[in-house]
Amino acid sequence: MKIAMIGSGYVGLVSGVCFADFGHRVVCVDKEASKIEALKRGVMPIYEPGLEDLVANNVRENRLSFTTDIAEGVRGADAVFIGVGTPSRRGDGHADLTYVYAAAREIAAVMDGYTVVVTKSTVPVGTGDEVERIIRETRPDAEFAVVSNPEFLREGAAIADFKRPDRIVVGTTDPRAREVMTEVYRPLFLNQPPILFTERRTSEIIKYAANAFLALKITFINEIADLCEAVGGNVQEVARGIGLDNRIGSKFLHAGPGYGGSCFPKDTRALAKSAQDAGTPLRIVETVIDVNERRKIAMADKVIKACGGSVSGKTIALLGLTFKPNTDDMREAPSLAIVAALEAAGATVRAYDPEGMEHARALMPNVVYCADAYECCEGADALAIVTEWDAFRALDLDRIKRMLKTATIVDLRNIYRADDMRRRGFSYTSVGR
Ligand code: UDX
User: Fold this and answer.
1) pLDDT tens for residues 371-411?
2) Strand 195-198 versus strand 168-171 pairing type
3) Pocket of ligand 1 contains residue 153 by CB under 6 Å
């Protein structure tokens, strides 16, 4: 099959290279010439484990290519995927669909033969109808179907998620489009992932509902963590105790500094906005958004409290800046709010992150960036662990203690054991225990 992927960002690139790896012929298209040039040279625009090698292999096998010319990608394609960004619109949180609609127009202008246009970008319910209208308006003669096929990829594990999905959701009622989509995903059938065909609107809702539910689960356990701290209890044991109930499930019950990233914050806002517009506000989702925003600030207060109530004139070492490990993504990372609050309270922040510092530098110019975890702790009054990179799970704690001015650690990801840390002489605070 020939597949065109419009938009070579996170979703487009990972999906495109995985389709190529299935054996399809894939052309990844992007407007940004510098990105396409870099990809042609084998330089990835994002950090994702395994991506670079997979791209190199598939380029070598002539299944994967990159271009800025949309016609080159779309001509002769059986399926054209739209994988462009849908950022939060300033002001109201609605998903900004400018890029999706622009892509639809451009695809329409150059497509030939029966073409399945697939929306992979996360889009509010009803967007597929508008994409269809735009294509029909641009090319009244065209033979096509518009399908919704949301992605459920986690950054840092995106390739594995794509190749071993829990389910594949395809929103279409067009039998011919259904056949094409079945062919697209056929190489995965060996593992027999459930493939769910639904109406297009249902598929669009599934994506938002899934992300909102996961954000809700995290926010729930974060509030339970606060309760544990207030009344005495261990949130990790509570999570295990409830997670073993199959109806609840143990995943996404790790208490921490609040969720961040490119999806949960944006998608919960967009879902809340769509629901408000439809006259059926989702009060639970609205609360999740609010609680999560407050939580990030509350984490700075936790650090301040651990420092005796004030950080004015003090230096705080932060380990981990990205919104989670194994990514260089700083979007809506809790560290952004924590650093802003600590700086506002008069602290100097030193930080180290294995992959995120390049992006972080532009966002947090006053932070002192360090070469490693130990340099980061040198002379600091306290250490806060914000992101649970593997490298931080086995720190030489005696060395850390020598580097710090006072042996104070705030572990916002609960990666160390409280009794162990106290035995080593640290003043140790964690989350919900
Ligand atoms: C998420 C969804 O998992 C994915 O299916 C969707 O397509 C895109 O959004 P991603 O944003 O890459 O993926 O990261 P994820 O691993 O889901 O984590 C999101 C945030 O929640 C991170 O900030 C993480 O630290 C936080 N989190 C996650 C917790 O605080 N506790 C948990 O138990 C799980």
Assistant:
1) 999 999 999 999 999 999 999 999 999 999 999 999 999 99
2) parallel
3) yes
| Catalytic annotation, residues | 263
Contact 63, 23 (CB under 8 A): yes
* Residue 113 clears pLDDT 90, i.e. is over it: yes
Q: Which CATH architecture has domain 2-198?
A: 3-Layer(aba) Sandwich (3.40)
Work out the average pLDDT over 146-160.
96
From 120, 161, 251, 263, the mutation candidate for ligand 1 (largest count of ligand atoms within 8 A of CB) is 263
For ligand 1, whether the C-beta of 155 sits within 6 Å is yes
**Is the CB of 260 inside a 6 Å radius of any atom of ligand 1?**
yes
Highest mean pLDDT among 46-50, 105-109, 187-191: 105-109
- Whole-number mean pLDDT of the chain? 97
Residue whose CA lies nearest to ligand 1 atom number 1: 154
Q: Which amino acid is at 368?
A: V
Joined tokens for residue 428: 């140790």
Question: Which residues, other chains included, contact 133 with Cβ-Cβ below 8 Å and sequence gap of 6+?
Answer: none
Q: Fold for domain 213-429?
A: Rossmann fold (3.40.50)
Cα separation of 414 and 321, whole Å?
A: 16
Query: Would you state the pLDDT for residue 189?
Result: 87
b/e map 251-279, b = 16+ CB within 10 Å: ebbbbbbbbbbbbbbbbbbbbbbbbeeee
What number does the ligand 1 atom closest to the CA of 387 have? 25
Report pLDDT for 91.
84
- Which residue's CA lies nearest to atom 25 of ligand 1? 324
Sorted by where each begins, the domain ranges of the chain are: 2-198, 213-429
Is residue 325 lining ligand 1, measured as CB closer than 6 Å?
no
Residue 184 has what pLDDT? 97
Query: What are the pLDDT digits (tens) for 167-188?
Result: 999 999 999 999 999 999 999 9
* Ligand 1 binding pocket includes 253 (Cβ within 6 Å): yes
**Both tokens of residue 154?**
């986690």
Q: Are 22 and 118 in contact (CB under 8 A)?
A: no
Q: Give the model's confidence band at 29: pLDDT under 50 very low, under 70 low, under 90 confident, else very high.
A: very high
Nearest to 52 by CA among 14, 84, 15: 14
